[in-house]
Amino acid sequence: MCTSVTLVHMANRNVTLSLPEEVFRRAKVFAAEHDTSVSALVADLLMSRVDVEYDGVWAAEERLMREGVGLRVGDAALTRDEAHAR
Length: 86
Known about the structure:
By secondary structure, the protein is mainly α. The protein has helices spanning 21-33, 38-67, 80-84, and strands at 71-73, 76-78. The radius of gyration is 20 Å and the shape is elongated.
């Protein structure tokens, strides 16, 4: 069974991979059997690996973004809106 990861509007980047012929052949068959592409399969596997490695980092970053932590410049604390005001 292949699980899928839903990514929120992430731009794609083309990459070139060098895989043994048998690995690529099996990946194509697996992807076809699970109604997906080899690219989506590779992206899913990479995201799974990266998420495991950086799980705590992503969680902390998302928490900081949710809480709207202000930027500190010396003694002054700027909100995001203040920092980007023109």
